[in-house]
Write a structure and sequence with these properties.
- The complex is a heterodimer of chains A (77) and B (110).
- With 77 residues, chain A is an alpha+beta fold.
- Chain A contains 2 helices and 3 strands; from the N terminus they run H-E-E-H-E.
- Chain A is globular, with a radius of gyration of 12 Å.
- With 110 residues, chain B is α+β, with helices and mostly antiparallel strands.
- Chain B has a single domain (3-103), classed as Glutaredoxin (3-Layer(aba) Sandwich), CATH 3.40.30.
- Chain B has helices at 3-15, 32-44, 57-66, 85-94, 96-103, and strands spanning 18-22, 49-52, 74-77, 80-83.
- In chain B, a hairpin with a 2-residue loop joins strand 3 and strand 4.
- Chain B is globular, with a radius of gyration of 13 Å.
- The chains are: A alpha+beta (77), B alpha+beta (110).
Chain lengths: 77, 110
């Protein structure tokens, strides 16, 4: 079953409380999303580690029920 | 992950300067993300090996634990995990991926 955008956002915020999360439903089918996650806690982390923190927040759903999530991470400017 | 799968992953990662674990083959990618990863490597004109995880269930599951990364494709350069297709795209656009390959002395395919 696909995930709702709000559910993705809620899980990311629960794990990374200061995160600014922007979810885009790319295909309008509730199954292909893009997410941009901005958090001060990413500062100094390599990109792979930043993405791993977001994937960890999704507790195993990534690559499972959530097939397509294009992910961009950044630190606040 | 079985020891067998780990040793197949290890030999692909350590035996090639650049290796892409993907769904399908560079000629016939079976997923949009894998297709994007192939396109980036082709644009960079770099010589690379590919492993089709759809042909090997042990590797398909094992590669996710290998680098604690839940999705495919996955790019490795000189034995180091670089990222999935989003990170590849970001690094390609900023020029970092080309720089990394150059710094690592990876040979061009042309």
């Amino acid at each position: 079953m696909p995930m709702a955008a709000e559910e993705i956002e809620t899980m990311i915020r629960a794990a990374i409380p200061d995160a600014e999360v922007e979810i885009t439903d790319l295909a309008g089918d509730g199954d292909h999303y893009a997410a941009r996650v901005v958090s001060e806690s990413f500062r100094g982390l390599p990109r792979v580690r930043q993405h791993q923190r977001v994937y960890a927040a999704l507790e195993g759903r990534m690559g499972g029920v959530l097939h397509a999530l294009q992910l961009t991470t950044a630190c606040p400017q | 992950m079985t020891d067998d799968a780990r040793s197949r992953i290890d030999s692909a990662v350590k035996g090639n300067d650049v290796v892409l674990f993907m769904k399908g083959t560079p000629l016939f990618p079976q997923c949009g993300f894998s297709s994007r990863a192939v396109a980036i490597l082709e644009h960079l004109g770099v010589e690379y090996a590919s492993v089709d995880v759809l042909q090997d269930q042990g590797v398909r599951q094992g590669i996710k634990d290998y680098s604690d990364w839940p999705t495919i494709p996955q790019l490795y350069v000189k034995g180091e995990f670089v990222g999935g297709s989003d990170i590849m795209m970001e690094m390609y656009e900023s020029g970092e991926l080309g720089q990394l390959l150059q710094d690592q002395g990876v040979t061009s395919a042309h």
